[in-house]
């Protein structure tokens, strides 16, 4: 009887339908035209209506707005034109503040290297699940922020970033300062050009980002004066932002998100193709397996597959010494934030014991901005260390301080004077 029961369970599992998301529905829109149409950064290539749901059925709550999927021209890490995708959301409610409706250009935390993990696809699903390749599950973890901001009258454009979402062999240009900043600036431009919105083409814009998205937001603020000077940028919000990638490696080691090493390496390879073979040459067989697997995964599966691994087993040499020497030293150094004055006021929120983006690095960037005459507000979250190898102090504080953060952004759109922290840092 025991054997029969086991066989019955096994048969049920074999015959049960496998959970999967239909990615084929996205291929036509997300395949960039080749060649790209002529135009300028921020020009729309195509757009179409986009279903917005908080969870797959669409029955448990809703966004109070209308979604439009967009593909627009931008510029990658090498200065080459590239197609980037994203989502614009037009609020159903009026803007209750002063002046024209504001636009929030939003860069999310990393959802994964696989094209199925792109934020603009997750808006259609709420929860992505495709178990054919393992535990390929991903949640739209920032939908609560976006839904709340939308309900308060903010127009929002969310970029997928360079290389994410679009169908093809490329990887996201993850944590690259130029690519991240360009994609976010051009998302704002594309939203302003989208027909039928309530936006003023010269209206106020703010950048918003968390984790890698915070890196993109600060990059955009730094690059606006040269790359997007026509934008009326009134502020930038950056939460738990890794501002110096060279300082991130020790925190990744033995971390739940140790597999994010693959994200970083693939981001370097995508941004600087000449580094791909040298990177592969320094990896062990297990390291090569990690690199290839993480390139097609969403964040949840990457975490589960490689949680708490030590980096050294993936490299033939001392990875921490490699990071101190070229080409990695120069490449990582080029992504550091703080070397250029940002446009508009900047707001940092950072936990003192953040395991992923070191607190001291964020503080150093804030101080560098202050030294350049920038208007900086730096908020320290004092949540004590809690299961830090699980990244609790990188993930939880942003939600704890959410109301404070949204209020700061609303104040910038309403012209409220800032309370700079520069004299206290």
TrEMBL record:
UniProt source species: Mycolicibacterium komossense
Q: What highest taxon heads this organism's lineage?
A: Bacteria
Q: Name one Pfam family in it.
A: LIP
Database matches in InterPro entries: AB_hydrolase_fold (IPR029058), Lipase_secreted (IPR005152)
Name it. Triacylglycerol lipase
